[in-house]
Amino acid sequence: xxxxxxxxxxxxxxxxxxxxxxxxxxxxxxxxxxxxxxxxxxxxxxxxxxxxxxxxxxxxxxxxxxxxxxxxxxxxxxxxxxxxxxxxxxxxxxxxxxxxxxxxxxxxxxxxxxxxxxxxxxxxxxxxxxxxxxxxxxxxxxxxxxxxxxxxxxx
Length: 155
Description:
Layout: E1 11-18, E2 26-34, E3 37-40, E4 45-48, E5 55-57, H1 59-66, E6 84-88, E7 91-95, H2 97-100, E8 101-104, E9 107-110, E10 112-114, E11 125-128, H3 130-133, E12 138-141, E13 146-152
């Protein structure tokens, strides 16, 4: 963790995104995909939230994204599960199964879930929590109202 600023020695900035809604650090979400199955997400915003452990969103967006994936994946088969791609402002952010499946005390769990129950009208957000931010650390810049993502440099 670098306070204030970003770690430019060990990380490369992928892209800077303008915040489209300040109350949640919300970004323009274009689409989500499981493997080659792309899902239009243009009516949703990506909320970058370190206070949320998982990737969480409305059923109509999340259910097609996780379709066919077991809720308790077999850890020995992670290489057979498809990648998930989240496109923000035209930039693709790819998570492999090793990123979106959580190994908790030897039990593998899917780190993506639909919000339970009825969602309030107007809640058109995909919450991109720790599952996303572990791979793409975020830098929140109040000076220009943006969020930048980084990725570890390859050694």
